[in-house]
C-alpha cells in the first residue's frame, strides 16, 4: 500500500499544511528575522533523576519554539501532521496507517482530562494531555485526517467509538484506542459496516497484526460491530481546531524546568487520578505582574500573591484556586490569567505529555527565541519530582 493508493501523495498533503499554517495563527508573532534558533547538547548521568532547565537572564519574555530530542511543542495541528508524515513507525507509507501508529504510540487509554471540545485539539492533546477514551482518540484521528484532505467519520458503536477514513471510495476503520485494524480475505482493511456483516474477520483474523489469542480478536469486540441497530455515525465538526500559536512565557530572570512531576495529583473529568503524566514548570520571579498566556493545560499555581482567571480573583496557593483549576468540566479552557500581586516567586505548572517528552543520557534541546543568551542545563530533581519513581 502507498500514499498514492491512499488517494493523497505527500506533496498534496504538504501543500495543505502550508495553507493550514495561516488558519492556525491566532496570536501575534515576532517577525521571523527576530527569531534565533539555537541547539544545546545537555548530558545527564541518570535521565530519570533530572530535568532540563532553561534560564532567561535577558529582557524578552517569549519562547516561540521548544523541542527535546526531536519532539517539539506543536504550534498548530498542521505541525502535528508534519510529524505524522515524517514518522517511521511502519513499513508502509500509507497515510492512514502512519496516523494510526502515531496516535497509538503517543497516548494511553484513561479517563479524559475534560469532555470539553478543547481536549480534542490535536496540538494541545499531544503537547499537553496524552490520554483519553476511545471517543477522544477517534476525534483526534478524524481531525488530523480531515486536515490532510480525507473524508472521515466517527462511529458510535455499542460500547465503543472508532474512526473511519475513506480511501479511494472505501471506508477503512483503524482503531488507535485498541491498537488494531482488521482485514478481509482480500487483505484490505475493513470498515465498520463490513465488520458488522462479517464478525469472523475479528474472531478469526485473516491477517493478524497482534498474535492471537488477544482481546482485540474476541467475541466481545465483535459484538460491538454486530449489534448494528445501535451503531450510528455521529455528526461532528472534524475540521482542524483553531489552536493558538505556541508561545511559552519566560520572564526576565525566570526559568523553565521539564519534564518532572511538580504537582500531584492530576484530576480527570470524573475525579479519578491520572496514573501517569508529566509537568513543565515556569518560575516567574518575585514582583512580576501581568498577563500569562497558557499554551498548555494549566495544572497548578504556587507561591504568594493573587491572580485573576476568567474574571475571578484567587489567592495563589489556595485550596479554592486548586479546586477551580481541577474542575475542567465547570469552565472552558483557561487561555490566560493575570498575576495581580506577587510577593514571592510564582510557579506556573503545566501538564505535558510524558510519552513525548523524555530525557536521555545525551539530550538535544532546540529553542527558538528573540534572544540567544538563554542558559540551558540539567538540574537534579528531588525524588518526589521525578517521573519514573
What would you say this structure looks like, in words?
This protein is α+β, with helices and mostly antiparallel strands and 389 residues long. It has 2 domains: 28-73 and 246-385, no CATH class; 77-234, C8orf32 fold. 22% of the residues lie in helices and 29% in strands. It is built from 9 helices and 23 strands. The strands form 6 sheets. A 6-stranded antiparallel β-sheet has the order 17-21-15-14-2-23. The chain has a 5-stranded antiparallel β-sheet with strand order 11-10-9-8-12, with helices on one face. Helix 1 (10-24) runs antiparallel to helix 2 and helix 3 packs antiparallel against helix 5. It is elongated.
Structural class: alpha+beta
Termini separation: 42 Å
Provide the β-strand percentage band. 25-35%
User: How would you sum up the global shape?
Assistant: elongated
Average the pLDDT over all residues and give the rounded result.
87
Rg, Å, rounded: 22 Å
Largest sheet: 6 strands, antiparallel
Question: How many strand elements?
Answer: 23
Number of helices: 9
Percent in helix: 10-25%
Amino acid at each position: 500500500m502507498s500514499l498514492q493508493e491512499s488517494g493523497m501523495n505527500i506533496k498534496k498533503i504538504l501543500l495543505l499544511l502550508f495553507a493550514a499554517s495561516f488558519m492556525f495563527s491566532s496570536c501575534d508573532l515576532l517577525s521571523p528575522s527576530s527569531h534565533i534558533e539555537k541547539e544545546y547538547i545537555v548530558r545527564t548521568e541518570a535521565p530519570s533523576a533530572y530535568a532540563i532547565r532553561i534560564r532567561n537572564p535577558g529582557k524578552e519574555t517569549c519562547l516561540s519554539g521548544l523541542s527535546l530530542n526531536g519532539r517539539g511543542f506543536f504550534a498548530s495541528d498542521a505541525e502535528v501532521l508534519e510529524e505524522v508524515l515524517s514518522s517511521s513507525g511502519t513499513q508502509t507509507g500509507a497515510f492512514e496507517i502512519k496516523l494510526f501508529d502515531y496516535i497509538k504510540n503517543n497516548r494511553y487509554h484513561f479517563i479524559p482530562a475534560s469532555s470539553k471540545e478543547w481536549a480534542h485539539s490535536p496540538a494541545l492533546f499531544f503537547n499537553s494531555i496524552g490520554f483519553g477514551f476511545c471517543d477522544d482518540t477517534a476525534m483526534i484521528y478524524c481531525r488530523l485526517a480531515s486536515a490532510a484532505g480525507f473524508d472521515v467519520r466517527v462511529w458510535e458503536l455499542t460500547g465503543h467509538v472508532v474512526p473511519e477514513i475513506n480511501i479511494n471510495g472505501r471506508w477503512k476503520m483503524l482503531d488507535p484506542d485498541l491498537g488494531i485494524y482488521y482485514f478481509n480475505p482480500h487483505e484490505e482493511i475493513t470498515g465498520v459496516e463490513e465488520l458488522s456483516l462479517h464478525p469472523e474477520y475479528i474472531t478469526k483474523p485473516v491477517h493478524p497484526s497482534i498474535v492471537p489469542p488477544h482481546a482485540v480478536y474476541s467475541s466481545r469486540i465483535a459484538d460491538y460491530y454486530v449489534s448494528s441497530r445501535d451503531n450510528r455515525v455521529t455528526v461532528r465538526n472534524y475540521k482542524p481546531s483553531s489552536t493558538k500559536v505556541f508561545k511559552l512565557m519566560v520572564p526576565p530572570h525566570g526559568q523553565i524546568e521539564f519534564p518532572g512531576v511538580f504537582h500531584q495529583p492530576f484530576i480527570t473529568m470524573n475525579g479519578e487520578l491520572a496514573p501517569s503524566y508529566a509537568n513543565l514548570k515556569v518560575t516567574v520571579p518575585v514582583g512580576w505582574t501581568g498577563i500569562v498566556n497558557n499554551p498548555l493545560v494549566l495544572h497548578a499555581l504556587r507561591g504568594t500573591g493573587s491572580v485573576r482567571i476568567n474574571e475571578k480573583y484567587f489567592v495563589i496557593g489556595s485550596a479554592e484556586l486548586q479546586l477551580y483549576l481541577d474542575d475542567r468540566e465547570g469552565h472552558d479552557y483557561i487561555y490566560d490569567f493575570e498575576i495581580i500581586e506577587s510577593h514571592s516567586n510564582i510557579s506556573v505548572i503545566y501538564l505535558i505529555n510524558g510519552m513525548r517528552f523524555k530525557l536521555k543520557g545525551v539530550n538535544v534541546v532546540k529553542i527558538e527565541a528573540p534572544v540567544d543568551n538563554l542558559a540551558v542545563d540539567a538540574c537534579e530533581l528531588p525524588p518526589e519530582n521525578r517521573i519514573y519513581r
